[in-house]
Amino acid sequence: MTFPFLQSEIQDFINEKIGEPIAKLALQKNPFPNVEWVTILNQIEAKAKAKSKLPTWFASKNIIYPSKISIEQSSSEKTALYKSSLLSGKSLIDLTGGFGIDDYYFAQKFETVAHCELNTELSAIVEHNFKQLNVSNLDCYADDSYVILQDLNKKWDWIYIDPSRRNDAKGKVFMLADCLPNVPENIDFYFQFAPAILIKTAPLLDLSAGLSELKNVKKIHIVALENEVKELLWEIHQNYTSEITISTVNFGKNEIQQFDFILDDNQILATYNTPQKYLYEPNSALMKSGGFEVISSHFKIDKLHKHSHLYTSNEKIDFPGRIFEIENTIGYNKHDLKTHLLNQKANITTRNFPDNVESIRKKWKIKEGGNCYCFFTTDIKNNKIVLICKKI
């Protein structure tokens, strides 16, 4: 398969136009009539998307990009590196290779990696790119992964799967059994070729729903980037039936917050109290985990209310989330709101509260921004309160 836009003058043009509006470029005359203009525009747009998400690819010469949607749906380098840190062994096969970001990092940990991709053009793109990236221990196979596993007929240390969350018949889907490939249906088949499987799923998948579909789950990783959950990773080991570990990690700009707990430990009851000196808001990975009881017991901090998922203490602790000092606690009533917040500037968060942020801002004329942080929530006595805080 040939890619005429790899000509040096076209590559120079693509690099020059990174960041320019595609809609504006589309109206211009194609300076390279022998290559489709839409193809060149796609390379410009996709490469621009890769600049912060895939810096290794962006900085390398003669990289070919698929559609911008493929770039958006691919793993970031940060999450791919994290995945590679979880696994060890000599061989891995990726049944849903895609653009190959994860496999680039797997290839740095394993002696051999196989990239399976049903889309022949995308498979050819990945094979080309790996040569540009000097990856020599990875083989690309353009076929259905089910067939590839049977044809190769060998044992692997790990199987990696990122099931497609789009189904031709159902559109966008959220249950694993509706994804492609159907992992719950094929799990015993996969175990014929590897004793361990890592599955990546969308952050929208409910943990209890995933556990109801999958067996032999040993660990669930909840991965967030700058407080936005990006993916769930399910470690499955053949014949494993013991306790399940929940591992949460949030990659911030300057720090990594990580907290692990055993799923059954969340049955431990939390303690409750009125707002003390400090307020703690769990990061998004921890919120996704649902470990609200174990947070209280592990960190020895009190919850404000069973459903508020905010915590408090008189002594400041290290915590995987945001920490605030409470400067004032007021009731959610006309007098207190007019006295403290009317026409003021503040950052607003609601937790277990009937009104949303937009309606609160409109009703009390609170402008967005500033150094004041207000939490509209419910306390242990079921009173609606506002915590006026400063961020630490």
UniProtKB/TrEMBL annotation:
Residues 278-320 form the PG-1098 ferredoxin-like domain. Residues 321-391 form the THUMP-like domain. GO terms for molecular function: methyltransferase activity. The keyword Transferase applies. This is Class I SAM-dependent methyltransferase. Keywords: Methyltransferase, Transferase. GO terms for biological process: methylation. The keyword Methyltransferase applies. It comes from the Bacteria. InterPro entries: PG_1098_Fer, SAM-dependent_MTases_sf, Thump-like.
